[in-house]
Amino acid sequence: MVKNISSFGRNGVHDFLLIRASAIIMTLYTIYLVSFCAFADISYVSWTQFFGGTFTKVFTMLALVSILIHAWIGLWQVLTDYIKCAKLRGFLQLGVIAVLFGYFFSGLFILWGA
User: Fold this and answer.
1) What is the pLDDT of residues 29-67, one digit of tens each?
2) pTM of the model
3) What string of DSSP letters covers the chain?
């Protein structure tokens, strides 16, 4: 078995479960948003009230984290499958991690910032 620093001790079953769990959360969040859009009169006021609620904020952050987990596992698998040069792969993985952290903190500040 090949050990890699970017695998963080995961295995295929762990990745499989994370992908499936994150997909379920993203599906539920999509249904939540679509149902709001279908049954509400969408205006600036209703939209800000909808996203001002604590449940929506928490659910949005959970969906964002699920998207980031889903993206990391998928991109990690693609990079390890197709980029054979270890230095280039490590550099690209570092870049992906930086972008994903940027997305996380952007979402955090947008949702919970003043």
Assistant:
1) 999 999 999 999 999 999 999 999 999 999 999 999 999
2) 0.85
3) ----GGGTT--HHHHHHHHHHHHHHHHHHHHHHHHHHHHS---HHHHHHHHHSHHHHHHHHHHHHHHHHHHHHHHHHHHHHH---HHHHHHHHHHHHHHHHHHHHHHHHHHH--
